[in-house]
Amino acid sequence: MPPGQIARRLLGQRFGSVGNVYRRIFVNLELIVDVVERELPRNANVLDIGGGDGALVERLLNRRSDLIVSMCDLAPHIGDFLSESNRANVTLLAATDFTEVTGAYDAVTISDVVHHVPAEERDAFFGSLAKSCNRWGCRKIILKDIEPCGWRATLSLFADRYVTGDRHVALFSRANFAELARRHFPKAGRASAVPDWPNYCEVLSW
Questions:
Q1: How far is CA 145 from the centre of its chain?
Q2: What pTM did the predictor assign?
Q3: What is the pLDDT of residues 181-199, one digit of tens each?
Q4: pLDDT tens digits for 116-147?
């Protein structure tokens, strides 16, 4: 069992507070939310792909209670960091690939997901994302990932491999994103931000 899962079991209800302190080493999520929230219209219906424990969604809903969020993840149990008040605005779709999600969404958020997708599968991931966005009627994607440069990026990579337990993780650069965006979303406009280096945000809209 990876060390991260062991810590989750041992800490129990204290895992949320300890996890927030641990995550802060790698990223200031409040700075990421600064970018995400200004890209979302009022009363938007948002699909968060790979939402995991819900730490980003929790912070987003603390500021934007008007949003309705569906959160899908391949993991069988998700949303541990969501407060009771915010959970009422979130539909949890555990053990669900985004290609299986139905409904209509104004925007999609993808935070720290693509670097967990094997490099040889990323083209197919973005191809499936383009088809799914067409099906959902979605015209905006907000992606957050990590530029592979500097000590924080290296530390994040090691943490994913040896604490989280994903030995195949490989960071996903803005240049990689730009190439896949041109291929699969050729009509989309692109906006970039680096709110907390090496953590970056990319927005596609069309």
A1: 8
A2: 0.90
A3: 999 999 999 999 999 999 9
A4: 999 999 999 999 999 999 999 999 999 999 99
pLDDT at 26: 94
User: Residue range 103-113: average pLDDT?
Assistant: 98
Closest CA to 177 of 141, 153, 149, 206: 141
Angle, in degrees to the nearest 10, between helices 29-38 and 55-63: 60
How high is the mean pLDDT of the chain?
91
Residues in the chain: 206
